[in-house]
Amino acid sequence: MSETKLQIQNLSLYYGTHQVLKNICLDVLSHEILGIIGPASSGKTSLLRALNRLNDDVPKFRKEGEVLLEGENIYTDLPVWMVRKRIGMIFALPTPLPLSIYENVAYGPRVHGMNQKKILDKIVEETLQSAFLWDEVKDRLDHPAMRLSGGQQQRLCIARTLAVQPEVILYDEPCSGLDPISTAKVEEAMTMLKSRYTQILVTNNTKQAARVSDRTAFFLMGEMVEINKTEKIFTIPQDKRTEDYVSGRFG
Amino acid sequence: MRLNPKITEKIAFAFLFLSTLVIVVPVILITIELLKNGMSVMSWKFLTESPRMGMRAGGIFPAIVGTVYLIVLTILFALPVGILAAIYLSEYARDHWLSKIIDVAIVNLAGVPSVVYGLFGLGIFVTFLNFGTSIVAGALTLSIMSLPVIITSSREALGTIPESFRESSLALGATRWQTIRRIVIPNALPGIITGAILALSRAAGETAPILFTVAAFYLPHLPKTIFDQCMALPYHLYVLATQVPNVKAGVEYGTALVLVAMILILNLMAGAIRSHFRKKKQW
């Protein structure tokens, strides 16, 4: 339970001369849900994008420091597609591909070379069940994913990410566009997925972090102010700024 | 003085409507004129026979065949190159300094007069590459002329694909090419094809680029290979109108009618493709 999955070592990120993340050191443990909270422009999303290497194509992006996935450097030891397969990402707005529900989930396995219909069928069913979407869509798998509701789309995106068998799942404010009931379903799915995946949840909703995460980190202006067990962050924070933020005095 | 909003609304409407009329009326007049004067000579023989009596009688079959050859070959040359270049520019080299220079070059190329392309084709394809005055030289010249328009319209089509599709695909571990092939191209293709066909139908009606590179004044036989000369409708029309005395007026109009009809068919194809894919579109 407590072995380290992801080691972030002295990570700094820059867009041009603007530094968005300052010397972050952070170990993410296997099978934990790590919540990351903080106000806008605190560097949370930039951190996630760096872990998925989505910043690679951003002009003038630069990083210092290293990120190790089970000891392997994700920037030098692994090809980028492998990093993204092992570290999946759920975006803030649901982003289904313009394909059917079935093909959205099968997309990942297909690009990684899986073409056997039976195995794909099995993957689609299993991952949709893990994402608590199967019962709602099992009779219309060939329908366009774009016609699903926002909450269903987001759970489809989770199923789609699960289908490539990642080890780590990154969530970038996954419920920011969802109503409370859809949010609850996504959170339920996250909790159920704990046994198999390591999850990092970036959220603007501090209550959400309090509900689902095991540990919580507080980011401010590109720095990690504090990280601790979630109940400690929300009850006896060590830093004045953390206390101000979680008690709602700013943010 | 402030005008009554009801009056300004009427004035605005009148100007907008009149401007539209200015565009539509000439098209209608051209169509009526062509039909009125051209239908008299229209017959199966006119479409399937060679010209006779110094082109004053007979049909325009060789010119139709020549234009079809030119269109088909131009599509074969220009479409793949144009689409691939557009994909490179908009998917791979987006913020590169080179692509900015190419941007400027393409916009300017689209404004170069077609007769300049004709002379360019004469210099490069006919003389330097030694294709002679031939279908292949003419089609290549038309291709070069269409490329800037094809590239520009293809890039616009690619640009309408939301960035979130690309990022979602990449985030699942797909490579950039897999993303382009499976997500970007299928969704951009209707727009790409529509733009390309419109560019090609423009090229099909051009006279200047084929003047020095392929078009024959009169050929009694059909071309046997793509290295032969051929007749072509736009040039044939030009010849009838300026070089041959005492042509029956109907022959000229009939030729123009056939040319316009062929271009119309191309444009209708573009429209059909677009509406077919729009029905299937999922976003």
Main beta sheet of chain B: strand number and arrangement? 2 strands, antiparallel
How many domains of chain B, as an integer?
1
Helix percent band of chain B: over 70%
Mean pLDDT of chain B: 86
**CATH architecture classification name of chain A:** 3-Layer(aba) Sandwich
The major pleated sheet of chain A works out as: 6 strands, mixed
Shape of chain A: globular
Q: Please give the order of strands in the largest beta sheet of chain B.
A: 1-2
CATH fold annotation of chain B: MetI-like fold
CATH class of chain A: Alpha Beta
Overall geometric form of chain B? globular
Alpha-beta content class of chain A: alpha/beta
Class by alpha and beta content of chain B: mainly alpha
Q: From the alpha-carbon coordinates, what is the Rg of chain B to the nearest angstrom? A: 23 Å
Going by CATH, what is the homologous superfamily of chain B?
A: MetI-like
Regions with little confidence, pLDDT below 50 for 5+ residues of chain A? none
Oligomeric state of shown chains: heterodimer
Number of helices of chain B: 11
Explain what you see.
- The complex is a heterodimer of chains A (251) and B (283).
- Chain A has 251 residues and is an alpha/beta fold.
- Chain A has one domain (31-54, 80-246): 3-Layer(aba) Sandwich (Rossmann fold).
- In chain A, 36% of the residues lie in helices and 27% in strands.
- Chain A has ten helices and ten strands.
- Chain A has helices spanning 44-51, 80-86, 101-111, 117-130, 134-137, 150-162, 180-193, 206-212, 230-235, 240-246; strands at 4-15, 18-29, 33-37, 61-69, 72-73, 87-90, 168-172, 198-203, 215-220, 223-229.
- In chain A, the strands form two sheets. Chain A has a six-stranded mixed β-sheet with strand order 6-7-8-3-9-10, with helices on both faces. Chain A has a four-stranded antiparallel β-sheet with strand order 2-1-4-5, with helices on one face.
- In chain A, strand 9 (215-220) and strand 10 form a beta hairpin.
- In chain A, helix 3 (101-111) packs parallel to helix 6 (150-162) and helix 4 (117-130) crosses helix 6 (150-162).
- The model of chain A has no long low-confidence stretch (mean pLDDT 89).
- Chain B has 283 residues and is an all-alpha fold.
- Chain B has one domain: MetI-like fold.
- Chain B is 74% helix and 1% strand.
- Chain B has eleven helices and two strands; from the N terminus they run ααββααααααααα.
- Chain B has helices at 5-38, 44-48, 61-92, 97-110, 114-128, 135-159, 163-171, 176-204, 208-211, 233-242, 249-280; strands spanning 51-52, 57-58.
- A two-stranded antiparallel ribbon of chain B has the order 1-2.
- In chain B, helix 3 runs antiparallel to helix 8 (176-204), helix 6 crosses helix 8 (176-204) and helix 8 packs antiparallel against helix 11 (249-280).
- Chain B is globular and about 70 Å long.
- The A-B interface holds A 52, 54, 59, 81-85, 88-89, 91, 93, 95-99, 107-108, 110-112, 144-147, 157, 160-161, 164 and B 95, 164-165, 167-175, 178, 182-183, 187, 281-283.
